[in-house]
Amino acid sequence: MQQAWAWRLTLTISLSLTAIAVQAQAPSAIQFFMPGGGLPAREIRFTLTRDDGRVEILFTDTKGKFQLSGDLL
Fold first, then answer.
1. String of b and e for 19-55 (b: at least 16 CB within 10 Å)?
2. How far apart, in whole angstroms, are the C-alpha atoms of residue 58 and residue 34?
């Protein structure tokens, strides 16, 4: 019985650490899709308005993806 408990604890800790490692490696990004679910044909210009009132005009790449970096995180 004690071995089963130790095995479950080890498995739980391993899965938790794996989930944390995966989250730490994935860069933050947003991606835009067209109404039909497809990718845009070109870059998309969009406006980001922050809580503090600051407004920024940003662009995606050709696949509609925008990397969040710096103070956007």
1. eeeeeeeeeeeeeeeeeeeeebeeebeeeeeeeeeee
2. 18
For residue 24, name the pLDDT band (cuts at 50, 70, 90). Answer: low
How far, rounded to the nearest angstrom, does the alpha carbon of residue 43 sit from its chain's CA centroid?
19
CB count in 10 Å sphere of residue 68: 13
The model's pLDDT over 39-71, given as tens digits with 9 standing for 90+, comes to: 889 998 988 888 888 888 889 898 888 887 766
Is residue 54 a contact partner of residue 62, using CB atoms and an 8 Å limit?
no
Q: What Rg, from alpha-carbon coordinates, does the chain have?
A: 20
User: Has residue 17 got a pLDDT over 60?
Assistant: no
